[in-house]
């Protein structure tokens, strides 16, 4: 069975080519939490995170939020000790930083539990602080990089961008079809997670973000240098790839340099992005309607419409709130945690510009009114 539910509706009207970004409930209220360690309940378990509130926090100002995810056997305190991967010294009190703590110092994201934990942390921070919802970012190294990738896959509608440092697909990738601004950094001689694993993560978002194919040169082992490739992608969804002559380390540095170039590259990438994310030109749309309902069940139908360009494939995703789906036809459905994705069937992926197709579903419970996200290629 799959779980079906609804996304939050836009809080305010924006131009048709932009997704909403808004302030949180904590605006104009005194800070609800202070710098330090905090505990919440997530998925029935006690979970902790470390919070760093900017000096002189002003509740009338919307702040950027950066989530820093630790490596395997690391801790949230280690992230703090590393200056949130070197970003805090660059932030000049413009940013709230948070470092969640993984169970057993890892991020297996079993049944989506770690994505749900991050959701719960964000809800806690949204009620406690004034945060620009279009300026949420995530970064992490190694296992933390894998978890950052999982957030890019499952929460592309929540995070403006991610920076994956020597990562691999270690924490799953529920969804994984929506565009999100993406920076990857990896060592060409990484002896723990081969650079090919980092390239695979990058390539997913090259596809999702509609990037043009191009060569991405990488430095030779022993060269003591790094290379940076900035891809040409859909407006608002850049992809940057940094290959370093280094092993398994997040703070790679060129020969003769005392400081790493990686934090500066991440910070420039994050701060270059506007709060509102343009909808990709030609993207598809999806609408839901209840065909029939009865006590304890319902039948629904989703119409998928191509945008200005034809499609070869499409997918529709939404977030659950407890309803259950027992059957889907004219599509293939998967779920992890509260994220549900329906991809086209073999016969209905190709749509002409403006063309439509439908898929149906049968469910248990009360018929939902989900807000759907449609992506196509």
Itemize the secondary structure elements and their pairings:
Elements: E1 2-4, E2 36-42, E3 45-52, E4 63-69, H1 76-81, H2 83-86, H3 88-91, E5 95-100, H4 113-128, E6 131-141, H5 143-154, E7 161-165, E8 181-187, H6 195-208, E9 226-230, E10 239-244, H7 262-271, E11 285-294, E12 297-305, E13 314-319, E14 323-329, E15 331-336, E16 339-344, E17 356-364, E18 373-376
Parallel strand pairs: 4-5, 4-6, 6-7, 7-8, 8-10
Antiparallel strand pairs: 1-14, 2-3, 3-5, 9-10, 11-12, 12-17, 13-16, 13-18, 14-17, 15-16
Describe this structure in words.
The protein is built from seven helices and 18 strands. The protein has a nine-stranded mixed β-sheet, sandwiched between helices. A five-stranded antiparallel β-sheet has the order 1-14-17-12-11, with no helix packed on it. The chain is globular. The chain has helices spanning 76-81, 83-86, 88-91, 113-128, 143-154, 195-208, 262-271; strands at 2-4, 36-42, 45-52, 63-69, 95-100, 131-141, 161-165, 181-187, 226-230, 239-244, 285-294, 297-305, 314-319, 323-329, 331-336, 339-344, 356-364, 373-376. 18% of the residues lie in helices and 32% in strands. It is of the alpha/beta class and 377 residues long.
Task: Compose a concise summary of this entry.
The chain is an alpha/beta fold.
List keywords for this structure.
377 residues, alpha/beta, 32% strand, globular, FaeB/C/D, xylan degradation, CBM2_carb-bd_dom_sf, Cellulose binding domain-containing protein, polysaccharide degradation
